Amino acid sequence: MATYLMNNMRLLKTLTATLMIVLAPLAHAETKWLDKIVAIVDDDIILASELDTRIDSITANIERSGKEGPPPEQLRKEVLDLLILENIQLQLANRYGVRIEDEELNAAVARIAAGNNLTLAQFQQALTASGASYLAVREQIAKEMILQRVQMGNVSQRIQISDQEIQSFLKSEEGRQRTAPEYHFSHVLIPVDSDASSAQRQQAEARAKALSAKMRAGKNIDNANDAISISDLGWRKSTELPSLFIDVAAKMNDLDVSDPIQSASGFHIIQLLESRGVKQMVKQTRASHILLKPSAIRSEAQTVALAKELRQRILNGESFRDLAKEYSEDIGSAQEGGDLGWTTPGQLVPEFQKAMDETAPGEIHEPIASNYGWHVIKVVERRNQDVTKEMRKQIARNIIHERKYADELDIWLRKIRSEAFVDIKI
């Protein structure tokens, strides 16, 4: 019986909800309920203790925020609805086989601790001091991660984003603001009084040119020794830069120093310390491959032997393209002679990427294995590609996706709630 209960946690949970225990001296026995069921949700149940625990937690959060919460009965109903939705999603996760590995959970807990400027040990101590259980918090974090994974898996596939939507966003005022390049400048001002003479202005300009040359040469300057004002402008989008600097900034690379820029207040020198989104250059590789997969009729050893044989035949002068068409089991590239087109780092599986990176153009790497099988890889050529436009499109796509996600999530949650069997007992 004990083994049966251990292997059937859902049954154990149900039995616990209805079990009666005698808590009294032997001379006088008193029967008490341990817990009760407040809702049946498909193949699972929600216990009163779960509901009460969540209500207590939410009530504490409301009190800490200083806000006024809803009436007790309304709060109880809303929290029960929340638990029902969570339960439905957790059952879906169980059917999908969604799991959070210990290593992943440990990393998530560590990030939360770091976000509160605490070490993991300090985080545990803080929870204990507040009366919370570290194990319970850890379990709740795992549950939230599972819920997020189930939601993303089901909702993201419902979201469609057209090229027209992306282009419209990029042309909008918000789109220009959100995707504008960012610059981090230091700024030097050689002031000139509004009533300065021509000779004084020339003297200030000469001083500004000398400082600009000094900065280009990598020599240190400071406020005291050079009698100037140096300021850090921080990170600013191009749309937030003073109009005086916009045209100059667009032509600068990181660490460049500008020529003196004249204004009514004097002469300005700017140095571009860092930039983001100005011009994104990516090293791309064009490669071809032949994929061979072990099978019931060809063992691992035979597959490796064939891969080595094909590589040698290519080195002996046979056409890589022709052999790829004949032997490769990659449906997507076989008919193209194994051509994978231009790829960027991270686009291919790590084993393939590593082999490709260490192979010079025109050379053929020794056969390597991946989850897909054995690969014979030929690197055709490499280039540095400007992907700034693609990057801006991806930023726009992410913003649009985020907006649509909230609406689609609400629709999906309503759908699974309507399709579930729910019997509320209170």
TrEMBL record:
Query: Which InterPro entries does the UniProt record give?
Result: OMP_Chaperone_SurA, PPIase_dom_sf, PPIase_PpiC, PPIase_SurA, SurA_N, Trigger_fact/SurA_dom_sf
Q: Which GO terms describe its cellular component?
A: outer membrane-bounded periplasmic space
Give the HAMAP family listed for this entry.
Chaperone_SurA (MF_01183)
Description of its domains: The PPIase activity resides only in the second parvulin domain. The N-terminal region and the C-terminal tail are necessary and sufficient for the chaperone activity of SurA. The PPIase activity is dispensable for SurA to function as a chaperone. The N-terminal region and the C-terminal tail are also required for porin recognition.
Output this protein's name.
Answer: Chaperone SurA
Function, as annotated, reads: Chaperone involved in the correct folding and assembly of outer membrane proteins. Recognizes specific patterns of aromatic residues and the orientation of their side chains, which are found more frequently in integral outer membrane proteins. May act in both early periplasmic and late outer membrane-associated steps of protein maturation.
The region annotated as signal peptide is 1-29
Q: Which UniProt keywords apply?
A: Chaperone, Isomerase, Periplasm, Repeat, Rotamase, Signal
Q: What is a biological process (GO) this protein takes part in? A: protein folding
One MF term in the entry's GO annotations:
peptidyl-prolyl cis-trans isomerase activity
Provide the PpiC domain boundaries.
180-274, 282-381
Database matches in PANTHER family: CHAPERONE SURA
Q: Which reaction does it catalyse?
A: [protein]-peptidylproline (omega=180) = [protein]-peptidylproline (omega=0)
Write the Enzyme Commission number(s) for this entry. Answer: 5.2.1.8
